[in-house]
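Supplementary notes (optional reading)

For those who missed the lab, this is the record we used. Protein: Ankyrin. Length: 376 residues.
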Amino acid sequence: MTISRVYWDREWRGFAKRPFNCIIPIMGFSFLPPEIHALIAKNLEPYDLGSLVRTSAALKRAYTFFLYEYAAYPSDGSSPLIWASQRSHIPLASYLLALGHFINCPEAQTQRTPLAIAACNGGLQMVRFLVSRGAALNCTDNAGYTPLIWAVIGGHMAICRVLLSAGADPNLYRLSNQFMYRAKPALHWAALGRGSGSSPGLVSLLLKWGADVNVVNADGRTALIEALTAPGQHAAEICQLLVAGGAEVNFRLLAATEPFDRILEVGQTVLFAAAGNPQLYKIMIDGGADAELEDAEGETVLEKAVIRGFSRHVHTILSHGAKFNIETARGISLLKIAMTRNHQMVDLLVCTVEERANLNTNILSGPLGKDKWRSV
């Protein structure tokens, strides 16, 4: 007989405050009657039992079953299947389902199902296990996200492939009053230029499985506008995939529900969103974007860039052959407006005028016509 000194398990209950002693007959322990094992297990606290099973392989085999029973009836009221999904503990999940636990029981605070939690944490084997047991693929949490969306946000391509092949809807998302301006389908998250979910591979995978390239999110944006307004490392490749997949490059309105200050900051057409990046702008032009398309305010992409004083946008737009008129259809003199902005913009506009001889002092004289163009 060997005396074993068992300490409180740090991972189970935090840092130990004091050890406790117990006399354990290691030799021949596995031959004890099951009634003795049950009596020992029922008279120990869960954290003590967890420490005990770590002292030897024989004790682990004898008492793991009792630990599962403790886990099946937690004291905090949460589903133990949630705990198992967070840690990809497939044996415990299998045991709980055998006891009759509801496989889609959501987490109390976020309403995420075990499948959504496993997909978010990158637990590929747990996802496969839950899918094989019939877990719901298209249920949403309180943010309106499905398990597929959480897998895309985390950049877990293998999990996305498992969910899509099992029948997950790539276009499903639900509007939430609490997270209204964050609600968007999976393709939008894959197209965003930030986070681990931004990936040309994910965009290609979602398009292959039927993601709608022109669906709008709660902000009224398409996936292409998401990629243009927040470009990341793979923005050019993502935009090319979206355009090749049929994305609308002449999308007129940014959003009907967009806050007014964000409309002024970002712009209202796909071309204006791309004008700050010459490479992305060229992709839009090659994809058939119309530089003469007027937005809801009656302005072309060049006029909007001049009025707002974006010299870089103006340079990109003019270098790709945009038509420049000294005076717009509304009677606004772009040169006069440029003079109130900066000299670099004036130089850009003057250098593109074919009939420079017609530029006389009349351009520099007279009122600026502020009654004809809105204040910005």
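If you only remember one thing from this example: The longest strand covers residues 2-6.
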